[in-house]
Amino acid sequence: MTSFQILRLTQVKALTGLSKTSLYQLIKQGKFKKPIRLGARSVGWLQTDVEEFITERVKASRPEIQ
Questions:
Q1: What are phi and psi of 19, to 5 degrees?
Q2: What are the phi and psi torsion angles at 37 (to 5°)?
Q3: Which terminus of the chain is more exposed, N or C, with fewer CB under 10 A?
Q4: In a 3-state reduction of DSSP, which class is residue 43?
Q5: pLDDT at site 48
Q6: pLDDT confidence of residue 65
Q7: DSSP state, 63?
């Protein structure tokens, strides 16, 4: 069975350094994966999706790290 870690908005903001507004703008532009609906008024993101976003940002800004 696969184990998934779900991060809430506060955690995603802390890991990425993005504000809520910036995060949702990137989602709208298709540059950040959409959140997963957890309940009527709650969402979360897969930790793997957030880590992938961070990795791609590092690769884009520091090609020598690849």
A1: -80, 170
A2: -75, 125
A3: N
A4: strand
A5: 96
A6: 67
A7: G
Angle at 55 between CA 17 and CA 48, to 5 degrees: 85
d(CA 51, CA 47) in angstroms, rounded, equals 6
Tokens coding 52? 């992938």
Taken in order of first residue, the domains within the chain and their CATH numbers are 6-65 (1.10.238)
What residues does 46 pair with on adjacent strands? Answer: 6
What sections of the chain are H helices per DSSP? Answer: 9-16, 20-28, 47-61
Query: What is the rounded (10 degree) CA torsion for 53, 55, 20, 7?
Result: 80
Residue 38 DSSP label? E
Place of tokens 């609906």: 37
